[in-house]
Structure formats: structure tokens, C-alpha cells
């Protein structure tokens, strides 16, 4: 079986155990560079910076994900919808609709620690897929 990227304790807490970062502490909350956000665990491209916006919620917010990159699953709390990487199943955060932040009316509230940023023009790492 293929091994995913090695994670530290904080990354594992969020990605494997569905934890969350404290609001306004993630490295990508106010990030504004142009490029692609990839899953920290498996390198799957999940969001493009064009779809990122400032919601004031304390976590990076996106109103769209890249095609076939994110899955929605009912959250254990029964109220929210969790979003996970479509390739590895790693926890990204939650998705909310009907808030009116953008014309798409969707907010993917994502933990910075679940992602890595690749600047535009830099090569994307190969996606690690389970065999």
C-alpha cells in the first residue's frame, strides 16, 4: 500500500481525527497569493486561489472546489456537512450554504493545516493514490 505524506501531531489531529484549528490562527486565513491549494496528506489539488474569499470566519473560505476534489459527508453532529479530500478522505472542514457571501452562496470553511499552497507556475507534486 502507498504511504501518504508524513503528518505531524497537529496535522493528524485535524486530518485524521476531524479536529479544527483555532480561528484566525491558520497560515492561509489571510493568504492572497495566486496558485493552488493541495491536500496536505495526499497532494490532491483541491482549491484554486481564484475561489478564495474573506468571510471573516477565521478560517480560509472558498466558494468552489476543483472538479472531483472534495466530497461532502454528513457530520457526526447531525447539523453540518463535513468536507473531505475525495482522494484520501482527509478532513478539510465544513461547507455552509445560504450565507450570501458570494454569488455562489457557498462557503467551504477549511483548516489551513489540511492544505499546502503551491504558487502559480510552480510544479504541483504528484497525487499519492492508494494502491
UniProtKB/TrEMBL annotation:
Record's keyword terms, sorted: Metal-binding, Oxidoreductase, Zinc
Gene3D superfamilies listed in its UniProt record: Peptide methionine sulfoxide reductase
Biased composition (Basic and acidic residues): 9-21
Pfam families: SelR
One Gene Ontology term of the molecular function aspect: peptide-methionine (R)-S-oxide reductase activity
SUPFAM superfamilies: Mss4-like
GO biological process, one term: protein repair
Catalytic activity: L-methionyl-[protein] + [thioredoxin]-disulfide + H2O = L-methionyl-(R)-S-oxide-[protein] + [thioredoxin]-dithiol
Cofactors that this protein relies on: Zn(2+)
Region entry Disordered, spans: 1-26
Enzyme class: oxidoreductase
Chain ranges of the MsrB domain: 1-120
EC number: 1.8.4.12
NCBIfam families recorded: peptide-methionine (R)-S-oxide reductase MsrB, PRK05508.1
Protein name per UniProt: peptide-methionine (R)-S-oxide reductase
Source organism per UniProt: Bremerella volcania
Amino acid at each position: 500500500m502507498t504511504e501518504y505524506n508524513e503528518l505531524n501531531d497537529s496535522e493528524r489531529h485535524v486530518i485524521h481525527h476531524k479536529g479544527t484549528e483555532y480561528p484566525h490562527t491558520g497560515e492561509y486565513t489571510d493568504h492572497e497569493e495566486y496558485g493552488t491549494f493541495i491536500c496536505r496528506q495526499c497532494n490532491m489539488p483541491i482549491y484554486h486561489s481564484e475561489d478564495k474569499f474573506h468571510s471573516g470566519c477565521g478560517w480560509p473560505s472558498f466558494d468552489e472546489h476543483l472538479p472531483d476534489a472534495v466530497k461532502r459527508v454528513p457530520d457526526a453532529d447531525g447539523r453540518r456537512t463535513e468536507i473531505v479530500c475525495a482522494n484520501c478522505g482527509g478532513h478539510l472542514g465544513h461547507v455552509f450554504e445560504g450565507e450570501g457571501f458570494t454569488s455562489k452562496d457557498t462557503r467551504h470553511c477549511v483548516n489551513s493545516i489540511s492544505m499546502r499552497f503551491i504558487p502559480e507556475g510552480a510544479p504541483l507534486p504528484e497525487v499519492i493514490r492508494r494502491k
